[in-house]
Amino acid sequence: MANLIATYFHPAVPISPEHIVFTNGVTSLNAVCALSLTNPGDGILLGQPIYGSFTGDLSVLSGCQLIYTPFHGVDQFSVEAVARYEETLLKAQGETRVAIRALLICNPHNPLGRCYSRETLEALLQFCHKYQIHLISDEVYALSVYDNDDPNSGFVSVLSIDPVPLGVDPALVHVLYGMSKDFAAAGLRLGCLISQNKRFLQAALSLR
Ligand SMILES: Cc1ncc(COP(=O)(O)O)c(C=O)c1O
Fold it and tell me: Residue 101, SS3?
């Protein structure tokens, strides 16, 4: 898996086996993330629309709340969308006193089929650092992207961005990957969490 990540995700910081924890699919990984990073009642921020099963995968076991961000005409893959996430976070923390612990993005996106640009990912990383929340990037469709004429529309893994020069804590950045989509092997039930955060990896290991 570390070799696959090195070849196709172009990690800015080399990924070795100790940065990877395997579970039985990305579905379970989402539950593991929510159980590890939230307490019951805490919030995880998501864009809208997004893969519908995140709702159950994240909240059923952990008891966390999903806080959806409407974009009201702003392209959710643009840098401008970060201000929408910020509005939603501030509203949740202010009005309803929900502690937001993470932002979950899906890149390439299900159901919209688009990829985030490097510029937007960098802005999202800085947003997460500003509020000290985790960025979880579900990249289960990483290799299922068609070539086209637009050089800016391809897949960029968040792993290919070095968080340190951006002033972002690497311990806040996590990628989910699995075999179900790119290898058409959903029955294999293999998912992996890739992170530089040893405590989070340890927590995931204890839960899987
Ligand atoms: C975005 C996304 N994440 C995770 C999953 C689930 O993956 P797995 O089969 O590894 O549990 C799916 C399946 O449709 C998905 O679309």
Answer: strand
Nearest to 176 by CA among 106, 111, 101, 85: 106
Residue 198 has pLDDT above 90, yes or no: yes
Report the separation in Å between the CA atom of 178 and the middle of ligand 1, taken as the mean of its atom positions: 8
Q: Is the CB of 106 under 6 A from ligand 1?
A: yes
Q: Which domain, by its residues, includes 56?
A: 2-207
Domain count of the fold of the chain: 1
What does the alpha-carbon distance between residue 48 and residue 131 come to, in Å, rounded to a whole number? 20
Q: What is the pLDDT of residue 142?
A: 97
Q: Is the pLDDT of residue 127 over 90?
A: yes
CATH code where residue 151 lies: 3.40.640.10
Q: Which atom of ligand 1 is nearest to the CA of 189?
A: 10
Top mutation candidate among 1, 23, 27, 188 for ligand 1, by most atoms within 8 Å of CB: 27
* Mean of per-residue pLDDT scores for the chain: 96
